Recover the amino acids of this structure.
C-alpha cells in the first residue's frame, strides 16, 4: 500500500519512516507554502535516507490563517496544529495510508483518536502514527543507533517543516520581533542520513 | 536493547513483534497464573513467528483480586486492566524496554501517558506500544499480509492471554454461569505463523 508520511527532516518523522518501511511503500511528503525553498532540505534528507520524496503545496490561505492565529495567541501551538491537519488532509487525497511522526508526549501537533477516525472515514484511508506509542527517551535511543543528526539553534538548522516558512511569513507581515515573540528559541535537529 | 513484549498469540501482539524486531532484541513474554497450561499456545505461536519466548508467573493475589473485581462489576474491563498493569510491572523488572500490543482504539487494556511515564520512571525502562498509533482497519490490513491466523468463538480458540485463565478461575470460584455473565461471547483469533 502507498503510504505518504509527512516529513520534516526531523528525528521523529525520519524514525517513523524506518518503522514503516517494511510494511508500506513509503513516500516522504513535505507540505509547504512556496514561501521559501526550505523544503529542499527535506528533499535532501529523504534522498539520504533512501526514500522517494514529494512536495505538496498548501494554499496561501492556510498560511495566512495560521500566522494570524499565532500572532493573536503569542505562541505557535494552534497555528501549527491547523497547518498539520491541513497537510494530513492533502496527503489523504493522494495516498492509501497517511502517516506522521507524532510522538506520545508531543503537545503539538497532536492527533486525537476522533480526528484520526474522521480523516480515515472521510478519505477512505488509514492514518498511522508509528511513534504515538513511543516516549522521548525511547525515540532518542533509537535515533542514536539508526540515524545521523545535526543540531543547533532554530535559525541555523534549516529543516523542511512548517515552522521555517511560518517564521518567514510572520517576519514579512509583522517584523523580526514578532517572530521572537511567537517562537521561543529552541534547539533544532536535522537528520542527515542513516547511521 | 532487550525488549520484553507482552504476548498472547493474538493479532495485535504478534504484529507488534514484527514492528519492533528491526529495532530491539525482542522476547515474547506471556504472563500467567499457573492455573491452566494455555500459555503453551503462546509459546507455540512465538516459535512459529521465530521469536524467543518467556513465561512470567504473576502472583495468585493478582488473579484473585482481578476476578473479585470482574464478578463485582459484571464485566471484565477493570480486572483485565489490573492484570495487564501487573504484567507490565513484571516485565519491567527484567527488560530494558517493555512493550505491549495496545491499539489506538482499544478500550481495555489502555495505558495512559501518565501510567506509561510512571512505569518508565520507576523501573528505568522505555515503555513502547508500537500499535498505539494504528486503528483497527490498519492493523487488520497489515495482519492480512504478514500473518496467518485462525479464528472462532472464545472457547475453541485458546490463546495465551489472561482471559483464558481468568475465565477458568471464575468458573472454579462461582460456576460456569458466572463466566457467561462476565464475558460476553466474542470471536477470538490466534496467530499461527507468518504469511
Amino acid at each position: 500500500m502507498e503510504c505518504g508520511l509527512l516529513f520534516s527532516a526531523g528525528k521523529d518523522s525520519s524514525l517513523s519512516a524506518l518503522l514503516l518501511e517494511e510494511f508500506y511503500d513509503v513516500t516522504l511528503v513535505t507540505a509547504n507554502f512556496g514561501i521559501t525553498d526550505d523544503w529542499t532540505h527535506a528533499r535532501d534528507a529523504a534522498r539520504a535516507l533512501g526514500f522517494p520524496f514529494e512536495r505538496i503545496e498548501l494554499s496561501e490561505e492556510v498560511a495566512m490563517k495560521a500566522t494570524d492565529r499565532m500572532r493573536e495567541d503569542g505562541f505557535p501551538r494552534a497555528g501549527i496544529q491547523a497547518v498539520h491537519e491541513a497537510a494530513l488532509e492533502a496527503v489523504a487525497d493522494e495516498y492509501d495510508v497517511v502517516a506522521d511522526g507524532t510522538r506520545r508526549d508531543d503537545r503539538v501537533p497532536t492527533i486525537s483518536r476522533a480526528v484520526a477516525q474522521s480523516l480515515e472515514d472521510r478519505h477512505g484511508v488509514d492514518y498511522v502514527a508509528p511513534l504515538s506509542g513511543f516516549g522521548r527517551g525511547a525515540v532518542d535511543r533509537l535515533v542514536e543507533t539508526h540515524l545521523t543528526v545535526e543540531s543547533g539553534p532554530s535559525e541555523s538548522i534549516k529543516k523542511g517543516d512548517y515552522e521555517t516558512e511560518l517564521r518567514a511569513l510572520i517576519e514579512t507581515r509583522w517584523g523580526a520581533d514578532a517572530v521572537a515573540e511567537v517562537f521561543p528559541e529552541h534547539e533544532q535537529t536535522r537528520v542527515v542520513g542513516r547511521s
Remarks:
- The domain at 2-194 of chain B is CATH 3.40.50.620 (Rossmann fold).
- The two ends of chain B are 27 Å apart (CA to CA).
- The first strand of chain B starts at residue 2 and ends at 6.
